[in-house]
Design goal:
CATH architecture: 2-Layer Sandwich
Strand content: 35-45%
Number of strands: 4
Structural class: alpha+beta
Largest sheet: 4 strands, antiparallel
Shape: elongated
CATH class: Alpha Beta
Mean pLDDT: 90
Order of helices and strands: EHEEHE
Distance between the termini: 5 Å
CATH superfamily: TT1725-like
Oligomer: single chain
Number of domains: 1
Helix content: 25-40%
CATH topology: Alpha-Beta Plaits
Length: 95
């Protein structure tokens, strides 16, 4: 079994935490609906201009887990969001 852990570092144009949370909530919900993955904001919770979104995928194939994690990152980069993807980290964990 393989777990793919993904961290997306985003730069946001928001001026308030309320604006930030609206953008982050939209991204998280879209990812949950499109992919069979656990998704949440994991860091920079009180930073207005940045967010870190984490996603995890479990698969019996490391190749499939890696493909899913990369597809999640690519989807966020392709969407016309008010967020800029600054960094993507993918870690594959063999369990």
């Amino acid at each position: 079994m393989t777990v793919a852990a993904l961290r997306l570092h985003l730069r946001l144009p928001s001026r308030t935490l309320k604006e930030k949370r609206a953008i982050v909530k939209s991204v998280v919900e879209r990812l949950r609906n499109r992919f069979n993955a656990s998704v949440a904001e994991v860091e920079a919770l009180d930073t207005v201009s940045a967010a870190v979104i984490g996603a995890c995928v479990v698969s019996n194939s490391s190749r499939h887990a890696d493909e899913q994690a990369r597809a999640i990152a690519a989807a966020v980069e392709e969407w016309r969001l008010d967020a800029e993807v600054v960094d993507v980290e993918i870690e594959l964990i063999q369990v």
